[in-house]
Amino acid sequence: MRLLERAIGLAVPPFCWACGATSRPRDPLCLSCRSRLRWLDREPIELDGVEVWAPVAYDGPARALVRGLKFRGAAGLAETMAAQVAACAPPDLLIPPAVLVPVPLHPRRARARGFNQAERIASALSRRTGLAVSDCLRRRGDGSARQVGRGRGERLAGIAGAVELRRGAGAPLSALVIDDVATTGATLVACASALEIAGTEQVAGVAYALTPGR
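Above: the chain's sequence. Below: its structure in token form.
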């Protein structure tokens, strides 16, 4: 399999998801674009009472990776995102007894996309940290409302009460809600609220990228 992958790589060189230039094997960004990633502090920020942390700002090359994963079906990009999260996380964040809880995707959208990008990131992060993954949340509603392009007030109103614990699932005592990007933080806050109602005692949010100025 590795020989086949190498042969394919020679025939079709890997490209950079941000600029389209040739990149190194298994690296979705060229060296130039990787150097343009805007790394954030290790201190979490607070969004409506929930501590949220991400390694990079949601702009430039980081935005290209998020959009490639979410809208172009490049599920393998989750590995790179998880690697950067694991490498840069605060030392007391990705440790037991925390459980990784991916932000749920509405079933209609999951069928259209073929996968849940938050679950892919959580699974890749689990392989790097040894933390368990619990897909214990679900989305209610018709799934037609998109968060992209909506203001903070609209996002908060649209997501409020739309997340709940799956029937028969147990809420972890300590949870890290995982998502690809935090813009207003409304989705992470809604997930944290659902977990707390279900009995989770400690909740924080972890995204790959965070909108600048949050």
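DSSP finds eight helices and eight strands in the chain.
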